[in-house]
Amino acid sequence: MQQAAKNTGAVVPSEEVRQGVLNLIKKIGEPAALARLDISRQTLARVAGGLPVRRATAELVAIRLQNPQGPKAA
């Protein structure tokens, strides 16, 4: 699994990002978290579960977690 992640440019999201996504889901619910982060349900599940995602996706989620107004306000 690690080798496959290296070949595709995938990374495991940081624990901080993973916890941020889990906290957001608990706070506002899954549908609202999907809309707030503007990501697919599969990506949300992968990040929350600590599974590899593309490097840019992990960075995008981290940035959007820091912006309380959502992606459109950035």
Structure, explained:
The structure is a single chain. With 74 residues, the protein is mainly alpha-helical. The chain has one domain. Helix content is 66%, strand content 5%. The protein contains 5 helices and 2 strands; from the N terminus they run αβαααβα. The chain has a two-stranded antiparallel sheet. It is globular.
Per-chain topology:
Blueprint: H1 2-8, E1 10-11, H2 15-28, H3 30-37, H4 41-48, E2 53-54, H5 55-66
Antiparallel strand pairs: 1-2
Helix pairs in contact: 2-3, 2-5
Instruction: Give the CA-CA distance, first to last residue.
Output: 34 Å
**H/E topology pattern:** HEHHHEH
Outline:
globular
Runs with pLDDT <50, length 5+? none
Number of separate structural domains: 1
- β content, as a range? 5-15%
Helix segment tally: 5
The main sheet orders its strands as 1-2
Question: Roughly what is the average pLDDT, rounded to an integer?
Answer: 88
Major pleated sheet = 2 strands, antiparallel
From the helix content, strand content and strand pairing, which structural class follows?
mainly alpha
Total strand segments: 2
Radius of gyration from the alpha-carbon trace, in angstroms: 12 Å
Helix fraction by DSSP (H/I, runs of at least 4): 55-70%
